[in-house]
Amino acid sequence: MSELVAGPHTRAPLSLPTLMRQVLLAAAPATAFGVWLYGWPALNLLLITLVTVVAAEAACLRAAGRPVRSGVGDSSALVAGWILAMSLPPWAPWWIGVIGGLLAVILGKGVFGGTGQNLFNPAMVARVALLIAFPVEMTRWVEPAPLGSATAPGFLESLGITFAGAADWDAVTGATTLDTARTAVTEGQSIETALPEAYQPALALLGYAPGSLAEGSALLLALGGLYLIYRRVIAWEIPVVMLATLALLASAFHLIDPDRYADAGVHILAGSTLLAAFFIATDPTTSPATTLGRAVFAAGCALIVWVVRTYGGYPEATAFAVLLMNAFTPLIDHWIRPRVYGRTRLGAPLSTDREGP
Amino acid sequence: MLLSKPKIIRGGVRTESRKQSTAEAPLEPLRAGQRLYVSLAQHIGAPALPAVAPGQDVAKGQCIGTPEAGLSAAVHAPTSGRVVAIDRHPAPHPSGLTVPTVIIEPDGEERWAPQLPDPMTAPAGQLDPTAIATRVAEAGIVGMGGAAFPAAVKLGAGQPVATLILNGGECEPYLTCDDRLMRERAAGIIDGAQLMARALGAERTAIGVEDNKPEAIHALRRATDALGGPDVVPVPSLWPQGSEKHLIYTLTGREVPAGARAADIGVVVHNVGTAYAVHRAARHGRPLISRPITVGGGAVAEPTNFEVPLGLPLQALLEAAGGLREDPARVLAGGPMMGQVAPLEAGVAKGTNGVIALTAAEIREAEGRPCIRCGRCVDACPMGLMPFEIANRAAAGDVDGAAASGLMDCLTCGSCAYVCPSARPLVQLFHHARGQRAEQAAAKERSELQRRMAEQRAERQRREQERKKAAAAARRRQRAQQKAAGGDSESPAQEQPQNEEKETQT
Ligand code: SF4
Ligand code: SF4
Fold first, then answer.
1. Which residues touch B105 (CB under 8 Å, ≥6 apart)?
2. Which run of H or of E encompasses A27?
């Protein structure tokens, strides 16, 4: 490599560690709400996951012979762990956090060669792997029991729930909105009549419903997401196109048969749609590098989410959608590229006598 | 073919302009100091040939370097004094390589040479186009926006030119010397533009000025109103708006085809400083011996603008700007986007538009991290390239792959590296890959040459053999004839092979 210093001799202030920390900052309100909503066990799970990813990242870096301090310091593993924790059932036992964290870092990133090399979103790799391996623990949801309320477990009790599986599950279990919707359709009921019991748009907006640790609060997730767009941390095309496509699809089918197809509100406010649109599909490494490519990617995500939710049996539509589209990212980047100045789309030089490109 | 509304270029970055400290500083003429280091290679192309000898007295404006054949430019004495040496000296270039330099000790008298050409007084429209181009060549004018391409070559290229564009972009952070020139000498710039338009036979002329220079736009408009001159078009302040290709796109909506030159689509672009130099050469008979420069950067005590005699060492400029208030992390010739680390003893060249002493905080040097494929560089690239892909291939040593990804289309404008959150040394990787490519091409050429030479040698040897055989046959025939004739002289036949041996050795 050349010893000479080349320009530019100054740079934009946004560096990789700041970028990652901005994501954490944006995810914090929704996470804090989740911790409040589901109590101390949720906080335990979050902390366990974070400690695990940091330790695993350090081990991976050491094994790869890379500088441990700067690698961990870029916070990318922390982001993967944090987003994974947000998508876990809030009262999951400690080992879910540990195994999930290890999977996210080692399977999600390490084996590909570390930061920037992975094909799939590490948090979603872990989430889907956990779901396949531990379907029971991964689909056990609790009714909201906000800190300070009568039903909330105390701190010591929470340690029992996290570390010894001490929850009396029959007393606390709830069904998520999308579960209710799916059950209604399979039982031949109309979605519209089945939903209102579990689903109220206002509560869904706040996230006051059984669900993952921090997927629920549409309002706070959107707030964090808009902040990330404003700070130019994430590409706006992904959330905008993904949400718009999903809303369009859902509305079109809902219009045709309201009994069988949930409306756009349910699709966007319930489940992990907003978390995926703002925090997961926007992962720079695993999404395309061009504006058009990102739009195609986001539309693909939305389509898969809608299909899996409508026709599939799995609850984790967004995780599957993102992973599937991740696999297409290299292809999208190969085929969808900007036109080079002075060249045609196919790469041949423009002719000198043609007016304009 | 000029547009009524400027087109916005794709990509580009909004850099922090950091121009506040010098934008209000008028161009202050700086006198030649102790010694001037006037390089004979201040332009793209072959260095000029020295026209003076050590010990010789020179007058201000006297030609001290005549252009070499081909692409080259004349060099003149920036002041009167004595040539103390003609030697190699560092230039404002990072390679550390020295260039042939005329070292002048000024006598302080600023005595003009008597044989300067007469001012051209007729209106531009009545002047002979060739005479203008000749005058520009004689004055040693080169592109003053940094590229230092001999200006006369672009004026007299012979290709029909429909549009002349004047570049008042100056989108590098810190630099304000063109801004000052436009504010202070608008009439001269407009006159220079008209002279160049005349030389080119251009039908239309436009001046693109970044919209963050309202005073410059105002001054130029006043001058064009008075002189009936070209349009002054505000263009967005965006790096690299001042790139020739992008200014052309903004003002005409056309792209310069890959591998072609602007002239191929009937456009020629000159910097506003060049236009002013043309005005001076034509109207006042002055060769190019000084230029406006911004001295700035956080490490400089009193950032300002100077009109500097060529050859003044960068060190002297920093001192004239109040010296350094702290140790700079880097001193550049040019702006921070495309400027180059320069040795302080190097003399100001015709293409040097700034001396910028940056503090570490301004450089924001960051630890290089792996590429996260975030695509920021793709969004920033004004050429429509995917810089991370080129860089990844270059880093892996895949030079052909890098070329396939557009390595040779890259302007090395630095937009991609500017925005990269991982602080990837993108431009450095591009330079490196280009170097490798050039080396490969040179090696290929060398081996091709060797192959051709070997072929030629083999061919020569074959011919030689044939000649020998033919000679031997001739001798045999001769001997046979002699025998038949009963002759006894054998000596000529013995001489022959000796001669042949000698021949093959040579
Ligand atoms: S901006 Fe930097 S990190 Fe992002 S894709 Fe380009 S090279 Fe990679
Ligand atoms: S340096 Fe080259 S690759 Fe980077 S932005 Fe400029 S033109 Fe594009």
1. B34, B35, B81, B82, B84
2. helix A16-38
C-beta of residue B292 within 8 angstroms of C-beta of residue B307? yes
CB-CB contact of B239 with B415 (8 Å): yes
Task: Provide the token pair at B506.
Answer: 């040579």
Contact (CB, 8 A) for B78 and B351? no
What are A149-181's pLDDT values in tens digits?
A: 888 888 888 898 989 887 778 777 877 888 777
Is there an atom of ligand 2 within 6 Å of B240 CB? no
Interior angle at CA A306, CA A305 and CA A312, nearest 5? 85
Picking from B148, B305, B381, the residue whose alpha carbon sits closest to that of residue A338 is B381
Cα A333 from Cα A322, distance rounded (Å): 16
Structure tokens at A44: 């335990």
pTM assigned to the model: 0.89
For residue A239, how far is its CA from the centre of ligand 1 (angstroms)? 21
In angstroms, the separation between the Cα of residue A324 and the nearest Cα of chain B is 18
Evaluate whether A305 touches A273 at the Cβ level (below 8 Å).
Answer: yes
Q: Any CB–CB contact under 8 A between B3 and chain A?
A: no
Question: Taking CA A72 as the corner, what is the angle to CA A68 and CA A75, rounded to the nearest 5 degrees?
Answer: 165
Contacts of A144 (CB under 8 A, 6+ apart): A37, A38, A174, A208, A209, A210
Question: For all residues of chain B together, what is the average pLDDT?
Answer: 91
Between CA B178 and CA B272 the distance in angstroms is: 7
Q: What contacts B422, CB < 8 A, 6 or more positions away? A: A15, A16, A116, B368, B369, B370, B371, B372
HSE, CB side, 13 Å, CA atoms: give it for residue B110.
Answer: 7
Give pLDDT tens digits for A39-88: 999 999 999 999 999 999 999 999 999 989 988 989 999 999 999 999 99
d(CA A94, CA A46): 10
Count of residues making up chain A = 357
Report phi then psi at B202, rounded to 5. -70, 140
- Check whether A191 has a pLDDT greater than 80: no
Residue A80 · residue A53 · CB < 8 Å: yes
Q: Which residue of B has its CA nearest to A282?
A: B374
Count CA atoms closer than 13 A to A77's CA, side-chain side: 30
d(CA B300, CA B319): 9
DSSP state, residue B132: H
pLDDT of residue A259: 84
pLDDT computed for residue A198 by the predictor: 58
Please state, in angstroms and as integers, the Cα–Cα distance from residue A14 to each residue in A17, A79, B13, B376, following that order.
Answer: 8, 17, 13, 11
Cis peptide before A8 (omega within 30 of 0): yes
Tell me: pLDDT of A221 over 90. Answer: yes
Which runs of E-coded beta strand occur in A8-148? Answer: 141-142
Rg of chain B taking only CA atoms, in angstroms = 29
Q: State whether the beta carbon of B390 lies less than 6 angstroms from ligand 1.
A: no
Q: Which pLDDT does position B502 carry in this prediction?
A: 45
**Residue type at B119?**
P
CA of B270 to the centre of ligand 1 (A): 33
pLDDT of residue A338 exceeding 90, the answer is yes
Q: Are A290 and A338 in contact (CB under 8 A)?
A: yes
E strand map for chain A? 141-142, 173-174
Q: Which atom of ligand 2 is found nearest the CA of B427?
A: 1
Q: How much is the pLDDT for B505?
A: 44
The count of residues in chain B is 506
Question: Could you give the CA distance from residue B433 to residue B416 in angstroms, rounded to a whole number?
Answer: 16
Placement of tokens 């040496």 in the chain: B85
DSSP helix/strand/coil, A314: coil
